[in-house]
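4-hydroxy-tetrahydrodipicolinate synthase
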Amino acid sequence: MDFGRLITAMVTPFDRSGEINWEATSRLIDYLIEQKKSEALVVCGTTGESPTLSDEEKLELFAYVLKKAAGRCKIIAGTGTNSTRHSIHLTKEAEKIGVDGVLLVVPYYNKPNQEGLYRHFAAIAGETELPVILYNVPSRTSVSMSAATTLRLAEIPNIVATKECQSVDQITQIVSACPADFRVYSGDDSAGLAALAVGGYGIISVASHVVGEQMAEMIQAYFSGNVQRAGELHRKLFPVFKGLFECPQPLPNPSAVKYALGLRGVDVGTVRLPLVPPTEEEASFIAALLK
């Protein structure tokens, strides 16, 4: 399964009452595929506000996005939770729906050790034939999966990739020793080009909602050997990569990118509590980023 080099972790559009806005979801899918050059979409990941979505909403979103995409890109279901049994259940249901793969986040809050992480992911992978992408994001989970644990998991046939947010150092360690067909994605937009330079395969992105076509050009330039052009594009996009998260003070994802989409004429509504929309100061900062 080739998920491509530019994958967008898609936001979940909501209406004014906080329910899923299906018409806006339909428009967003077309926009991300046709205008922003997304080769795959992660549905119900962190950027999709998975903690506030019910299982029923998640499964409905998987089915809806799969049908709307209609083969134009791959669909990756975010089925990871901090419960192994719950993750297995969601993964099996997503497999029945027909998604192309699943993204499994490192369990949060219960803080397993490395052996627990290994057994958690191995157990889920053993219950599905779908390709599995691991997701290491210690800033959100409080636990970081080590390179050694990732490499152990990479030996399991249907664990095919990882989304790595720890560091470029860790990406380097994984790329240096993983199987040839195991793919490493940067989960940090601002580290994306550096990740490619040390052997990463692509980027699972938030900023691609608003600058995806430029990111696709950057990735293409790098792999075509035009490193100078790739660097130019990275430097141009860097303020957007950083600004969507730092805002002038840290703003939880996806509050900023949802607001940015609205400024681009793609109305996806706001966020569900406990997240909140940008303040007036933050909104002005985001608008300036996109000029």
